[in-house]
Amino acid sequence: AAGTGEKGSVTLAKTAILVTGVAGFIGFHVASALLARGETVVGIDIVNDYYDPELKHARLNQINDHPAFRFVKMDVAEAEAVKDLVLEAGITRIIHLAAQAGVRYSIENPFAYQRSNLQGHLSILEACRAVEGFEHLVYASSSSVYGDRPLAGDGFSEDDRVNEPVSLYAATKRSGELMSTTYSHLYGIPQSGLRFFTVYGPWGRPDMAYFSFSEKIMKGEAIEVYGEGHMHRDFTYIDDIVEGIIGVLDHPPAGGKNEIYNIGAHQPVGLMEMISTLETALGREANKIMRPMQPGDVTTTYADVSKLKAVTGYAPSTPLKDGLERFATWFKGYKGLN
Ligand code: NAD
């Protein structure tokens, strides 16, 4: 791991860490955890309105007063501005999470993905290239790069073929991985790409099923269950994700390489089981309307996490029941439903 200076059992680096997408679900949690272990964090986000910007501001309000945190409102696709900030702040480690997320939205709004995910990723790579002694870029990829595959075997492995993305979102995430491989090859930038598997938890994303279902269930509205309820997702609790990200940050690959890791729960759950667990957590029953698969959706996600485990000791530990209970408690508080 990079850095000098001991504080407790944690080795502190001398330099600030840049977190992109810091007003987002995962970025906010990562920044909070980094601050808690004594790091200095520079966070950027465009705070777009893909979902309620109030939620993004509310997340930022949780960390804005921290003396070791600095927020800069910035579009990650603005390459010159990003590079200037990185050089000015003395950044040598970046956690790049800013992106246009969402599979279904990419059908209607393809160019949002071009800007945030393709140009944005390239802009981060160019900033890394400009830093002398750059230490580590950790960036977000997605389980969606695996395409539509059946639930079989021991999970999707990083060595599996990933040539058939079924949404533009997935195609841009895979493109980011490829651009990263090229930049590692050309410039020896140490990088770790993390393929996240359906992350959920407090301060989560209103566009994701567990969250939008909760809103409808609490209002007594019907929920639309896509894929006739036959989908499986490897739901992964946010704290397990944050632990994995920070574990990876401390393990830059040797030789300036780009390593790809799955980061998931290794515990696929059927959509109907997720809904009944959510009903219990919320203490209300859902009125379900069955709907067919949506274009761009995949039937299954299932992470083989042995590679990440071998490198960082990653061991996701939160059962869906506990995670959804914690989400439900936060959700009711945030919505004033207590
Ligand atoms: P999120 O939408 O909550 O956070 C992304 C943040 O990036 C948002 O706050 C948004 O305003 C910001 N952003 C978008 N475009 C930007 C731009 N051009 N410049 C600056 N900021 C910009 O999503 P999240 O769930 O926190 O996801 C974080 C990362 O993880 C993303 O790269 C996403 O693709 C990836 N991911 C998430 C999941 C999941 O289940 N949550 C699964 C797979 C991959």
TrEMBL record:
Domain of life, source organism: Bacteria
Keyword NAD: yes
Pfam family, one: Epimerase
Alphabetized UniProt keyword annotations: NAD
NAD-dependent epimerase/dehydratase domain mapped to chain residues: 17-264
Signal peptide (UniProt feature, chain positions): none
PANTHER family, alphabetized: EPIMERASE-RELATED (PTHR43574)
Name used for this protein in its record: UDP-N-acetylglucosamine 4-epimerase
Organism: Asticcacaulis endophyticus
Lineage: Bacteria, Pseudomonadati, Pseudomonadota, Alphaproteobacteria, Caulobacterales
